[in-house]
Amino acid sequence: MGASLWGVGRARSTLRPPPACFPPQLPTSRASQIPRAPSPPPHLSRACARAPRDLKLDTVEKIVEDFASDMALNPFSSGTRLRDMIRAIRASKTAAEERAVVRRECAAIRTAISERGQEGLRHRNMAKLMFIHMLGYPTHFGQMECLKLIAAAGYPEKRIGYLGLMLLLDERQEVLMLVTNSLKQDLNHSSPFIVGLALCALGNICSAEMARDLAPEVEKLLRSRDVNTKKKAALCSVRIVRKVPDLAENFICLAASLLKEKHHGVLISAVQLCTELCKASKDALEYLRKNCIEGLVRILRDVSNSSYAPEYDVAGISDPFLHIRVLKLMRMLGQGDTDCSEYMNDILAQVATKTESNKNAGNAILYECVETIMGIEATSGLRVLAINILGRFLSNRDNNIRYVALNILMRAITVDTQAVQRHRVTILECVKDADASIRKRALELVFLLVNDTNVKPLTKELVDYLDVADPDFKEDLTAKICSITEKFSQEKLWYLDQMFKVLSLAGNHVKDDVWHALIVVISNASELQGYAVRSLYMALRAYSEQGSLLRVAVWCIGEYGEMLVNNLGMLEAEPPITVTESDAVDAVELGFNCYSADVTTRSMCLVALLKLSSRFPSMSERIKQIVAQNKENMVLELQQRSIEFGSIIQRHQSIRSSLLERMPVLDEAAYLVKRASATQATIPSYKPASGVTPGDLKIPNGVAKPAAAPLVDLLDLSSDDAPVTSTSATPNDFLQDLLGIGGTNLSTAGAPSASTDILMDLLSIGSSPSQNGLLDSSSPAQGKDNSGGNNYVISVSVTIAELSNTSVAEKKPFSAVPQVVSLVPEPMDLLGSLSSSASSSGTKSSTIVPQAADLLDGLSASTSVSGIDDACPSITAFQSATLKIVFDLRKQLGKPQETTIHATFTNLTSTTYTDFIFQAAVPKFIQLRLDPASGNVVPASGKGSVTQGFSVTNNQHGQKPLAMRIRMSYKVNGEDRLEQGQVSNFPPGL
Q1: What pTM was computed for the model?
Q2: Of 450, 448, 426, 430, which is closest to residue 439 (Cα–Cα)?
Q3: Is residue 742 packed enough to be buried (19+ CB in 10 Å), middle (13-18) or exposed (0-12)?
């Protein structure tokens, strides 16, 4: 504030005749009576230097007294209240005290403004307001005071007014429109100082309207003889062009003429104006390319070769700011223009070779020079020179310089890959840097450098560094290594070796899709399966704490355990190892001890142990004991697996070998497509490979889950907008009677029911279902459900494809076997449907299975069907113009409440149905268990059919008849179709 305060004092002194001189010394007695003040203004000092020595003492004393009194009256002298306010604010110990001081001062300023107090206080009040504004307090009440000070005639008032205008207002304030006239007058003022104030204010807060009004005055000032005025006018023109690009054409010629100036301040402002013009107008860009390239080259050559100039020297470099501005403008002009680029090549090479790189200013110039070379159509030799400069930057100790060098190299690799490859060793060293941002940027650059020729040495360097890398950096490093090996691996053996190293060193940082892909590769590489399981076993012994390594190793041991023990599939250079069956089981058991909280790992360990029980019969008893440890596990998934696997080991030895065969070879191409789709946040639909029929798929029912199924969830009671294709009428709905709903008028046959169908609501369908027209009209006369409840047990045929898409985190055990969906989940056998020899008729025994019972009892080859009574007739459960469903009913002797139903689905149209799914819902007192369907494709014109078995148990047999809602979904030429109906023609006694 000292310099500005003195400026005001100097201006005030012009109101009275200037003193003739200032004495070099004052008498001690007189000087002690004068108030202490800062040093005299420069013009008084110069006057003193020219003063004659024979001046009378009384004249000198009078001059000093006048000066002292003037400073005492000056509101910006050392005794003003501005400093007192600053001291009071700084002395405040709490925020409340500071707010109190500010409120007091703001109140005094408001009073002075409203009462139009002493004119000399305006300076002080505005200075105090600006300080209060910088503290963050509202000062809008002083905006008009700024305008009054700007309209004043004196320089001190204008200076404080313009300063307050730039601080307290911005271009969005409406009050700014009132200052346009004052700005126009000041731009035409005879004093260059006042013109400079107006240009500074206009360059800071100029709006689009002000730019259009005042652009002619700024154009005239660009032709001024005063260098400071031209410099400020050029900077003000930059603001005008930004606000109103249409005015750019008015400044093109003037900007080009300014490039001929010698003053560096004018030159740097002119270059900035030319840069802004190039951004705003294509015409300006073409004009400057034709007329200014030679001038820019001359400026750059002169400033590079100029001798030492103290006013422009920065660390031994002559005006680096002008260097950088000119280089940026040359980059814009040379981009995409071969002629301009050719004209620049020589001077750019000179700057790149002559500039010293041991100073920060020199590095800044070299950085801009490299940016310019890479941005224009430079020659190959010049680009190599630029990349070599970046290579030197990589060896610099400054982290910022190394970081910007890596950024430019990432862009330069697309221009000249070979030149960047020469600095590969230095870039690899940057991967090991202590700075995290440099490590990440260097790793990205290394990933771009990898090709078929250098993939092995680069991968080896990265894998070696993986062992000592920081834990925070390991995730990024492993992701890049895995991407490199997957993208550039030409042989599977090298790929497996690198992946095993990564899993061993950073298995806890590997993403799930990486080790999933590794398992797919191992499944497809039959000649390397033995080598893989042995390598993983050895790695697991040394790095058992790596989670992903453990999962892959456990899976391989479970699939290829006999190859591990018998040293099958040995490679030529592979040394044999000795592994016993007990050692293999120990390795799997390690998963339980090290990862007891990892549900995925423990589930995989249980499956591996189950498979080893078939491969190593002598270890069955020990495996059974390990599996039994989870029978009381709190996690339902582990508890269910433990119970079912223990049952398989103990009770189903006849089917264990066929049940636990090796997994079929996984489709690598399909997995890659699915993985790529998952990265794009899309859900891929499962489609069988061309030429593969549903019968060829090794899944129980051959039904795949459609990508965008039109069916809503049967358990979702909140949606009522499922699509319905059938529109036939519904007869009297006897289920209302079964649900105990009375007082409802039933509709006549052939008309839709007007009452609410609760079962249809459970199916989440908002309209009446399709009916087959063959329902028994006497059915509604049956008994009622006294409970009045509307809880239905809903059973859906679940496919293996759906099971694979089920998240473990949902904690809901799904099964591909017939199941009863109840309020309390029951332990079920997930493998119950894998035997194809359940019965000779394709249906299962309908024996009621109690909770926690083994659902595999009916799956052995010796399953008896002699207890089936064929007395019940077949019924047509559903028939429309497109689909016919026949139920073949069977009863078991001694169990009248149970009924086994064999459903046959026939297509009545000439178009094949695909993705066929059958669903059923029954009242609460009936239990329903669905078997998997024989397929999901229904041939056209009745040339074939799909069958599906299910059993129902009527817990109120003899009191209430069977009741069932059915729904069928399928696709016709890729279009989703839905049909539904109610089966009410079951024979009596079911």
Answers
A1: 0.56
A2: 430
A3: exposed
Q: Over range 719-726, report the average pLDDT.
A: 39
Hey, what amino acid is at 423? H
Q: What is the DSSP letter of 982?
A: E
Q: How far apart are CA 489 and CA 496, in angstroms?
A: 10
Query: Is the Cβ–Cβ distance between 546 and 601 less than 8 Å?
Result: no
Look at strands 945-954 and 868-869 and give their pairing.
unpaired
> What does the block give as tokens for 449?
């450098």
Query: Between the CA atoms of 680, 686, 692 and 696, what dihedral angle is there, to the nearest 10 degrees?
Result: 140
- Hey, what are 604's tokens? 């995989």
Q: Which residue has the tokens 């669903």?
A: 919
- Say if CB 503 and CB 549 are below 8 A apart: yes
CB 651 within 8 A of CB 644: no
| The token pair that represents 399 in the structure block | 């982290």
Contacts of 190 (CB under 8 A, 6+ apart): none
With 0-12 / 13-18 / 19 or more C-beta atoms within 10 angstroms meaning exposed / middle / buried, residue 904 is middle
For 600-622, the pLDDT digits (tens) are 888 899 999 999 988 888 888 89
Rounded distance between C-alpha atoms, residue 276 and residue 247, angstroms: 12
What burial letters (b/e) apply to 587-624, b meaning 16+ CB within 10 Å? bbbbbbeebeebbebbbbbbbbbbbbbbbbeebbebbb
Q: Which of 424, 334, 319 is nearest to 372 (CA)?
A: 334
The DSSP element (H or E) to which 967 belongs, if any, is strand 964-972
The Cα 108–Cα 111 span in angstroms is: 5
Dihedral sign, Cα of residue 868, residue 870, residue 872, residue 878: positive
Distance of CA 259 to the CA centre of its chain: 47
Q: Give 73: exposed, middle or buried? Use CB within 10 Å, 0-12, 13-18, 19+.
A: exposed
- What whole-number distance in Å separates Cα of residue 927 and Cα of residue 848? 10
pLDDT in tens, 213-267: 989 999 999 988 888 999 999 999 999 999 999 998 889 999 899 988 888 999 9
Cα R_g (the chain), whole angstroms? 45
Between CA 102 and CA 109, with CA 108 as vertex, the angle to 5 degrees is 85
Say which residues have a Cβ less than 8 Å from residue 110's Cβ, sequence separation at least 6: 141
H or E, element range at 421: helix 417-421
Residue 792 · residue 921 · CB < 8 Å: yes
Nearest to 783 by CA among 959, 606, 664, 590: 959
Identify the CA nearest to 711 among candidates 760, 763, 758, 766: 763
Q: Tell me if 201 sits within 8 A of 164, measured CB to CB.
A: no
The residue behind tokens 């207002």 is: 169
User: Most distant CA pair in the chain: distance in Å?
Assistant: 147
Token couple for 830: 């997930």
pLDDT in tens, 176-222: 778 888 888 889 888 899 999 999 988 888 888 888 998 999 999 99
Strands (E), 684-815: 792-796
Write the pLDDT tens digit of every residue in 461-517. 999 998 888 888 888 999 999 999 988 888 899 999 999 999 999 888 888 889 999
Please list the residues that pair with 868 across neighbouring strands: 892
Q: How far apart are CA 882 and CA 865, in angstroms?
A: 34
Instruction: Centre a 10 Å sphere on the Cβ of residue 62 and count the other Cβ atoms it contains.
Output: 12
Residue whose C-alpha is closest to residue 901's, from 956, 953, 826, 855: 953
Identify the CA nearest to 492 among candidates 516, 517, 513, 461: 517
Element (H, E) at 456: helix 455-466
> 35 pLDDT exceeds 50?
no
Do 337 and 289 meet the contact criterion of CB atoms below 8 Å apart? yes
Q: Which residue type sits at 987?
A: P
Bridge-partner residues for 380, per DSSP? none
Task: Record the tokens describing residue 374, joined without a space.
Answer: 């890479």
Token code pair at residue 921: 């819902």
